[in-house]
Design a protein that fits this description.
alpha+beta; membrane; 13-stranded mixed beta sheet; 17 helices; PrgI family protein; about 45% helix
């Protein structure tokens, strides 16, 4: 009897610090600041200085302690609150597309007195090119009928390109366990291909949009095909049969209206690094070479998705991608309605970012004002219970909800080449074994956190053995909920948390204070996770390897 294969996911998300244990960047910075100060005041004031140093170290540990509630440390919560309040004071928590800026606002701002300038600046700051989370989005290729290639240049980050592929998914109805296992292996091959040294597409976003079924097309079909002329001279039996036919179609449409439909997307992400620019230069000058290279990459990714059994469709054009962006902000806009979009940059709607949710207030497809409420949370690897899981472990979040909840589940995944992941895993295992030995020699009880971390890293080392064909990876999951009212949003959040617990997810970290920047993590833009950062030694080795000769074939 065949059974579905299982895999272990979850566990740790951070590396080890120079002080031992899990890496805490805030604590490391704090201790590096307090250390020299403590040495100086201890030398100067001796016993009093040592006492003050001990107090400062204790304050650093308290301020940077991360509670199990995933709400972050006291220091990080304070930074988030301060950032949110600062944006609100400058009027940056409200977004209105810059195309709607009143004609006289620039002149009013230029002529405003010093007393009135702050008030005018609040209004002026609301009108911007991009909402938070999508700053720096441009289009390298936006021609009709061509794959929409988005060019992302977020401030302070490496530029990259993205293309959206609609997919039908692997599983079609009821499948045997053997089929599911085969599909899982093919998907693993898709992820592993990004670990190739020559691979340019090293990360991807897997996105599922769950929304109520749209019965409009079926209603239109019934209206066009029911022939009411038969009732003119019809007998009673014919009239009764016609009435029963209407009732039958109404029942079908009513049942369908209570169901859901899912739309699946895979977003490819290509970093604009030195290797990419060198390869593009061999294919043409400037943007011409970029387009040729990226179109080749799009075709290659389409083939890999097909081999993985995801049944990809033609990549979305820029306008169709913009239609998805608009739908994510206001679900009453159909996800496929792109005919009215003339400029793919003109797809953003007016919104206001509050502390724990975002409110979109704009016109619906009927030209009437409408509001939608959104809240977004993140699920990290350490919030997933460690244990064997099948490929169907997220089913409770995808189906079977007791109420109509419009939601988006987005998983960002980056493949880390085996040589880099293997070195990091061995380094972490060495650190954990040293910490374990130190605690045992001191006669202390070994902490549960250290035991769990050590088991997780041992599993990583085993999986990454040479010849296994496995690569490392990092992933991050976001879930966004949309509702037409605040009350419905509150109820939906509770139901989603219940479904998450059925999936073995211990906690959803709601991104309070991040506003639209959090909501954008569930847009098909591959912006939900920071890229993997090489160590200094790895960066030096990569630079020494170079990008190849300019006249090489690849």
């Amino acid at each position: 009897m065949s059974t579905i294969n299982t895999r272990f996911i979850g566990g740790e998300t951070s590396r080890r610090s120079i002080f031992g244990g899990q890496r805490n960047r805030e604590r490391t910075i704090g201790l590096l600041i307090v250390g020299p100060i403590g040495v100086a005041i201890t030398i100067w004031f001796q016993l009093i200085g040592a006492a003050v140093t001990a107090v400062l170290v204790g304050l650093v540990y308290l301020a940077t302690h991360k509670h199990a509630s995933r709400a972050g440390s006291m220091f990080s919560r304070r930074l988030t609150t301060r950032r949110f309040n600062d944006k609100a004071k400058r009027g940056m928590n409200t977004f209105v597309p810059v195309s709607r800026r009143p004609a006289g606002l620039d002149e009013r701002f230029a002529q405003a007195t010093k007393r009135d300038r702050d008030t005018v600046a609040l209004e002026w700051n609301q009108y911007r090119d991009w909402p938070d989370g999508l700053v720096g989005l441009q289009w390298l290729q936006d021609e009709p009928g061509e794959a929409g290639i988005a060019w992302h240049r977020p401030p302070g980050e490496q530029p990259y390109f993205s293309v959206v592929f609609p997919v039908l998914g692997q599983v079609r109805g009821l499948e045997s366990d053997m089929t599911v296992n085969q599909l899982m292996s093919r998907f693993q091959g898709f992820l592993a291909a990004a670990g190739n040294r020559e691979a340019r597409q090293t990360s991807a976003q897997f996105l599922t949009r769950i929304l109520p079924a749209d019965s409009a097309e079926h209603e239109a079909w019934v209206a066009d095909n029911l022939d009411h002329e038969v009732l003119r001279d019809a007998s009673d039996e014919t009239a009764e049969a016609f009435r029963q036919l209407q009732i039958s179609y109404k029942e079908v449409i009513t049942r369908m209206d209570a169901s859901y439909r899912q739309r699946h997307f895979v977003v490819g992400r290509w970093p604009e690094d030195a290797k990419f620019r060198a390869a593009a230069m061999r294919r043409g000058d400037g943007a011409v070479g970029w387009k040729v290279l990226l179109n080749n990459e799009v075709q290659a990714m389409y083939r890999r998705l097909a081999v993985a059994g995801l049944r990809p469709q033609a990549p979305l054009t820029a306008r169709k991608t913009a239609a998805v962006f608009r739908h994510m902000q206001m679900p009453s806009w159909p996800i496929d309605q792109a005919g009215d979009i003339t400029d793919p940059m003109d797809c953003f709607l007016a919104e206001e970012s509050l502390w724990d949710h975002t409110v979109v207030s704009d016109m619906n497809p009927l030209g009437q004002p409408e509001q939608w409420w959104h809240r977004t949370g993140v699920i990290r690897a350490d919030a997933v219970e460690t244990g064997p899981r099948t490929p169907l472990w997220l089913v409770p979040l995808l189906t079977g909800m007791p109420a109509k909840i419009i939601r988006t589940i987005s998983i960002d995944f980056e493949t880390i080449p085996a040589q880099h992941a293997r070195a990091a895993a061995r380094q972490d295992l060495t650190s954990d074994m040293a910490d374990l030995t130190s605690q045992q020699r001191a006669g202390q009880l070994v902490g549960d956190d250290l035991k769990v971390a050590q088991r997780a890293v041992q599993s990583r080392v085993h999986d990454l053995e040479p010849g296994s064909g496995h690569h490392g990876g990092q992933w991050l999951m976001h879930i966004s909920i949309s509702a037409p009212s605040k009350r419905e949003l509150v109820e939906a959040v509770e139901l989603i948390q219940e479904a998450a617990s059925e999936c073995g997810i211990t906690d959803i970290d709601w991104l309070d204070g991040w506003g639209q920047a959090a909501h954008a993590a569930c847009f098909p833009a591959a912006r939900g996770m920071a890229p993997y950062q090489l160590t200094r030694g790895q960066k030096i080795l990569e630079r020494m390897a170079g990008t190849g000769r300019s006249d090489s074939l690849r």
